[in-house]
Each structure stands twice: as structure tokens, then as C-alpha cells.
Amino acid sequence: MRTVSILGSTGSVGRSTLAVVDAFPDDLRVVGLAAGANIELLAAQVKKYRPELVSVRTDSDVPKLRAVIGDAVAIVSGSKGASDVASMPSANAVIAAIVGAAGIPPVYAALRAGKRVGIANKEVLVAAGDVMTSTAREHGGEILPVDSEHNAVHQAIRCGTHQEIQRIILTASGGPFLRRELDTFDEISIEAALAHPTWKMGSKISIDSATMMNKGLEVIEAHHLFSLPADRIDILIHPQSIVHSMVEYIDGSIIAQLSTTDMKFPIQYALLYPERVQAPFARLDLAKIRTLDFLPVDPRRFPAVELAYEACRTGGSMPAVLNAANEIAVERFLAGELSFPAIVEIVSRVLERHAGKVAPIASVEDALEWDRWARNEARGTDVAVSR
Ligand code: MG
User: Fold this and answer.
1) Backbone phi and psi for residue 234, each to the nearest 5 degrees, phi listed first
2) What protein residues have CB closer than 5 angstroms to ion ligand 1?
3) 175 and 75 together in one domain
4) How many domains does the chain have?
5) Nearby residues of 161 by Cβ (< 8 Å), 6 or more positions away
6) What is the CATH number of the domain that holds 110?
7) What pTM value is reported for the model?
């Protein structure tokens, strides 16, 4: 029996994680939940799964949850509360599915406590990847990717040694604007940007998929997870999202992982690894799909990708700044303050301003400090393409 804490239990990956727990009642049990503003759903989850500890976003949410669930379960709050859930002694594994850099302190706490962490929260690795991987090494923690591409790579690298890897090929759906006329990007609505063609996801990652910043962040994530330089991590557009990623070996063989577009696959792998168990989820029917397409990334359509490669090559604080500036730009787009092309334009300007200031990230505090700096810069930046 593995015991699991879920950070971000009411979000898309959190709910998929609970569906995996439902599918394997003899193998998995929930002991901790942390969530944000959706108190109603969190209360329903607490009643169903009976965890030992629950964390809510703010102090003022504690009595709201208490009123619904009674006194049976301990309730904590804030970043400290999420870290308590992440490091609770009775949990073997943690699924980290908080959105954005807010996941940094709890993931760090989990790794320091020697947990297995299934990371869906890629921003943590982008902003503080070296800190997280070295903390895992020192404290016996373990990082398993839940991000579908990295999970695919994790499966494919079991076919060879690190020295035998030529390159990683991350697949990308290309998002909703793969074929949209470039001169209409100024008119892209929030609804259109949120409508991902193959995956149902939260709003932040859906916008990141539309700009393809998501794939850029995934290049940095892969760099940390698999200890490879940016120039050995390639991106290939694959609109069907069936091949989740591939590893090319030095002999020219490519190993790919395929499944339906369902996050329950990478989540079950991360929780149950190295075992494979009989799963009840819908299987892939390739005879029905028939065709798998692949095409290169057009850098004019998706300028975010090159920004992320640059940040990965520069290293230090640059990826943390990229991530934070992007979070704010996406937030401002979703608030109706910015046009779609302005998201990446703002990130680009903040990176330019950071170029002379790049510093090493030796601790969580360093990552959070540059995160704050970049957020302020991105909030204060206006570009000509603003509405
Ligand atoms: Mg992904």
C-alpha cells in the first residue's frame, strides 16, 4: 500500500490523481490534501477519502472548511500548510499539482523529507531545478515526472544508458493556433486561447500551450530531469498527442511511449513505478486513429520556444525569471488586459532587462527572490500590442 498526499487536489491533475486512487483501492490511499479556493469540492474530497491532514489557501478558509467537514480532520493553511501536507510522515508519495511557482516551497519540503514526488508542477523545476534535484539526492527523495512528455521519456530511457542517449524529442500538439493566420493573432480571444484541441487542462497551462511557452518550459524541465543540455532536447509538433515523447539513442533507434490523452496514465506510472499494474483505463486503438502526423516548430508562430531555449542555455536565475514573467503575463491576458501576442512580448522584455543581472540559484530563497523581481517587472511592463 502506498500512501499519497496531493497538492492541488481540486485541479485537473489532482482530480485525475483521485481517479487513479479509486482505480487501485488495494494499492493507494490518500493521507493528505492541499487545495486552493474550491472549498466545496475539497470538502467533498475530505468526506470521501478521510485524509489525516488538509491544507487550504488562507487562514480565512479554515472555518469555511471546518463548517462543512466537522472536527475529524486537522486543517492547516497557506504555503506552510501545503508544505506540512507535502512532508507529513505518513505519506510515501506526493503528487505536486499546484499551478506555478507557488509549488516551490511544498515540493522542496517533500524532497527534504525523502518523499517520492510526482511532479506535474513543471514551474518548480524550471525555477529551481538544480536545488530540487540536489535536495532529492541528499535526502533520499525521488522525482518522477507526471508531465506526460517527461513521463514518456522516463519510460523510454529505461531502454538504454545515459551515455547511449543521443537526444530527447518532446512532442507538442501545437495548441489551438497551429494553423491560424499569423496576422490575426492580435484578435485572439481568451476563449479561443483556452480551447485546447487534445487535452482538457487548467487555464494557465492551456494558455501556455497556445503560446507554446508550455513546451519551452518543458525543455527546461527535461534538462533538469534527464541531465541533458538544451541542444540535445528537441521539439516536434504532433497534433494528435498520441506519441507523448521519444528518446533517440546513439545507434539511431527511437523509443516512443504512446497512450490515450489521459493524465491517469502518467499519474499511475509515477505512483506505482517501478511496478506496472493492470489498469482499467481506456486503451489506445491505433487502427482507429490510423494516422500520426509530425511537423517542425515554426519559430515565427511560436517565439516563446526560442526564449525558453535561450533561458535554458543561460541558466542561473534566467529560467526562474522566464517562468515568473510568463505567469504574470498569462494572468494579465486572462484578466483581459493584454492581447495574445503581448504575453510573449512581455516575457521577452523582462528577460532582456534581466540579462545583465543573471545570478546563481543556490536555494529556494534565491529562486523566490528572482521570481518576485520578475513578477514586479512583468506587472509594470506595457507593450504597444496591449488592448
Ligand atoms: Mg506536458
Assistant:
1) -110, 160
2) 147-149
3) no
4) 2
5) none
6) 3.40.50.720
7) 0.95
Burial per residue of 55-89, b for 16 or more beta-carbon CB atoms within 10 angstroms, e otherwise: bbbeeebbeebeeebeeebebbbbbebbbbbbbbe
**Strand pairing of 165-172 and 53-56?**
unpaired
Averaged over successive runs of 10 residues, the pLDDT of the chain (387 residues) comes to 97 96 96 94 97 96 94 94 98 94 95 98 95 98 97 98 98 96 96 88 92 98 98 97 98 98 96 95 96 97 98 98 97 96 97 97 97 97 65
By DSSP bridging, strand 116-119 and strand 93-96 are parallel
Distances (CA, A) of 26 to 17, 30, 34, 117: 15, 12, 23, 20
In a domain? residue 374: no
How far apart CA 39 and CA 335 sit, in angstroms, is: 23
Distance from the CA of 337 to the center of ligand 1, in angstroms? 27
Same domain, 181 and 87: no
User: Are 133 and 191 within one domain?
Assistant: no
For residue 265, how far is its CA from the centre of ligand 1 (angstroms)? Answer: 13
Instruction: Give the distance (Å) from ligand 1 centre to CA of residue 280.
Output: 23
Whole domain around residue 177: which residue ranges? Answer: 160-260+297-314
Q: How many Cα atoms within 13 Å fall on the side-chain side of residue 31? A: 16
Claim to verify: residue 128 and residue 171 sit in the same structural domain: no
